[in-house]
Write a structure and sequence with these properties.
With 333 residues, the protein is an alpha/beta fold. Helices cover 43% and strands 20% of the residues. The model is unreliable at 1-29 (pLDDT under 50).
Length: 333
């Protein structure tokens, strides 16, 4: 998969000229009173179609907040599917000649080769630079921009919250997908925060769901006091078996997305999913009004959420500190 960084200078300039022309055409179409066209490529994750439906609702809310009204000045074309179908679904959407294409999660990798000079908005858990989607976070440089959930500050904060939940524990087992773009950033942030918090890190790498049993066996053997699961799509898929293991071993566990806590684990701390997808709507608004994706910095989540699963804590007879509970944005009872 190529990016402009791998192309000759003249070709790069041609791409940017095409992007400017596309943005200008969008702005002119709006001034002429024609509805803007947005293509939505949703991802049916481990949670199924309901998760994509909620994401789309939040995205629509973001556009409404910026003044767009479907049926009056906006047309929205939608497809949902899994990553292997991303290319075919994108091809269907491109028949509508959208002004902006919006892709969820890993769908961007199938969409990117087919969207040409159309702005493409993405959201991913990992590092979009390492994934070769953009040249840099501050200056994407091509036709793509969006939101990334990757954050060194969040990685350190999750370790801090887990330390509080462990009380006197000091051994933290980290489960991480080694194929995840940005895993090195998360690993460095966790190891940097560990000495300050007085914890020792036990790193357990996964590459597929088949690696989980061996990793959990190592966690049991090493005698961890808590589990930190580095958030990504693989970890979200494995949230329930991790929760079952944590319950059996009476271990507090934390990751980034609320679905991890909802699956039966103790805590999650990371982006508010509703805010995350509304944010994509705000970026789409800027593109529809003539901004170039090359000039819109890739954003980190603006809204964070700390979720505590009290049901899980009670089931493992884990007494969480009261000040930890007071900080929770949401408690699952």
């Amino acid at each position: 998969m190529q990016t402009w960084r791998l192309q000759p200078r003249l070709s790069r300039r041609a791409v940017l000229v095409a992007a400017a022309a596309s943005a200008g055409a969008t702005a002119r179409a709006q001034r002429a009173g024609k509805p803007a066209r947005v293509a939505w490529l949703g991802w049916t994750s481990a949670e199924g179609l309901s998760a994509s439906t909620k994401a789309l609702a939040s995205f629509r809310a973001g556009l409404v907040e910026r003044g767009w009204v479907e049926g009056r000045d906006l047309e929205l074309f939608m497809r949902d599917g899994d990553r292997p179908r991303a290319g075919d679904l994108t091809a269907e959407l491109m028949k509508h000649d959208p002004d902006v294409v919006v892709s969820v999660g890993p769908m961007v990798f199938g969409a990117k080769p087919l969207t040409g000079n159309k702005p493409l908005v993405f959201c991913i858990n990992g590092d979009p630079v390492e994934a070769k989607l953009v040249a840099s976070l501050s200056r994407p440089g091509g036709q793509l921009t969006g939101v990334t959930a990757l954050s060194t500050e969040l990685a350190g904060k999750r370790l801090e919250l887990l330390k509080e939940a462990m009380r006197n524990g000091s051994r933290v087992a980290v489960l991480a997908n080694e194929t995840h773009p940005g895993v090195a950033v998360e690993r460095d942030a966790i190891h940097a925060a560990a000495p300050r918090l007085g914890v020792k890190i036990q790193w357990h790498a996964l590459k597929s769901p088949n690696d989980l049993d061996a990793a959990l066996a190592a966690v049991k053997r090493d005698g961890a006091d808590g589990i930190l699961a580095v958030p990504d799509n693989l970890i979200n898929r494995l949230a329930q078996p991790i929760a079952q293991f944590a319950l059996e071993r009476r271990l507090p566990a934390i990751s980034g997305w609320d679905e991890f806590a909802e699956a039966g684990n103790t805590m999650s701390y990371g982006p508010s999913r509703d805010g995350y997808f509304r944010q994509m709507g705000w970026i789409t608004d800027r593109l529809l009004r003539g901004a170039r994706p090359a000039d819109i910095a890739v954003e980190q989540p603006r809204e964070l959420e700390f979720v505590v699963n009290l049901r899980a804590a009670r089931a493992m007879r884990l007494e969480l500190p009261s000040d930890l509970l007071l900080r929770a944005d949401r408690q699952l009872t």
